[in-house]
Amino acid sequence: MQMVTFVCKGCGAELEVPDAHASEAAECPLCGATLVVPMPGIVRDRMLGGFRIERRLGAGAMGEVWLATQVALGRKVALKILAPSYTRDVAFLKRFRNEVLTVAKLTHPNIVPAYDAGVDCGIHYLAMAFIDGTDLDRQLKVRKVVPEQEALAIVRKLAGALRYAWDKFKLIHRDIKPSNIMMDKAGVPLLMDLGLSKSVDQDHSLTVTGAVMGTPYYISPEQAKDEDALDFRCDLYSLGVTLYHMVTGRVPFDGTTMAGIMTKHIVEPFPPPRERNPAVTEECSVLLATMMAKNPGERQKSWQALITDIDLVLAGNMPETCWPDPGPSAVVPGMGEVPPRPHPVFKGARKAKVRQVDGTSAAVDAARFEAERAQLELQQAKQAAQAEIVKLVNQVDVSFRRLKILRKQVDLAANRLSIAQERMDDGRLSEIGHLEAQAALSEARSKYLDELRSYLMNRASLDGKFAGAD
């Protein structure tokens, strides 16, 4: 195991961390500052496969992204570099090569193109076009809300890019979110970071086993439940959440833990956009309700259907795809037909009309009251079940976080024991010091195993709750 040595920007202390934790967040043991462990060997002006490294642009789930120059052509590129912890994983390297093949297929004005990929001195990289602009996430932090017409125009272009990827290659992105959408200086949106892309025609073994793909704030319910049979509709949902964020200034579901947010996507009802921003039109609200339907079958049936709906909303008309189906009208014997109440997105905007055959409106109101009371009782029961699920999900999430911390402590204890063994062998450390290091490792492993048992028990309970909900 190699060690990465770097300096804490908070207190100036020199820190040493195993390279397996490169690109991960770490806490300085002296000042408590949160740091990102740098990748070993990646420095300014280093040559990597024909690219000269310039500066670090950011870090993602798989590694770091650097600004570089392709020397032969003199052009700027964004160079994605895999973290060392992933390069030791044969299955993950297959997935990375799969990404390279995926991106190389795509040629669309709203998708960031790929130029080259390779391995240099054991460092795996992917070179993509460098877009001179900012991502949509940064723009939203400044602008807060994007005017509806502008937001719809942006989403329409992205839908066109995703339609191209799906119709031509059966590709899904699985991580649509504002930070994966670059806006160039001309205002053109470009979809980037296809690291989670999946072709439904490819072997499922190329995906990460047991891992949930996607970002909690924008993840689809089916991804949150870790379902296998994903298609373009999971991207459609995430694009809907992105549009929701743009026009309301907020994500639809928020929370203090990743698991809690994912659970809300699964069980909580669609929050009406007009309650958060009255400027959002009814037409756009219906479009969002359809895109973000919990059941994929209630969303638009194709990317073209979504584009058609967006065009209608841009023109001030209702979309063709309307969700949800209001169901059959309530029939009161001897009195007539009572149409169902409108969807919450129309709250305060429309009133249901009652068509009477005979009888009085009071009797109709009484029947409606009974129906609403029964619906309220059912809703309360659902909310109680949801609260229990959320509580259990939070317990699983906290336990998982503790597992990650305890695993790092085990790794550090093992590293200290290795160092203690070397020092004892050359006479710089007594046998007592070595035994203390052994005891520390044993204690770290014991705590990890105890927490692992707790995690597995809670996870089994949670899986049972979800199975019962289905």
What is the number of domains? 4
How large a portion of the residues is in β-strands, by DSSP E? 15-25%
What name does CATH use for the topology of the largest domain?
Answer: Transferase(Phosphotransferase), domain 1
Largest sheet: 6 strands, antiparallel
User: Could you list the spans in which at least 5 consecutive residues all have pLDDT below 50?
Assistant: 199-213, 325-342, 346-359
Helix content: 40-55%
Give the oligomer, counting copies of the same chain as homo and different chains as hetero: single chain
Quickly describe the structure.
The protein has 470 residues and is α+β, with helices and mostly antiparallel strands.
Show the helix and strand layout.
Layout: E1 3-7, E2 14-18, E3 25-27, E4 34-36, E5 47-48, E6 51-59, E7 63-70, E8 75-82, H1 84-87, H2 90-105, E9 114-120, E10 123-129, E11 133-135, H3 136-143, H4 148-169, E12 171-172, E13 181-184, E14 189-191, E15 198-199, H5 221-224, H6 232-248, H7 258-267, H8 282-291, H9 303-314, E16 330-332, E17 336-338, E18 355-356, H10 361-425, H11 431-469
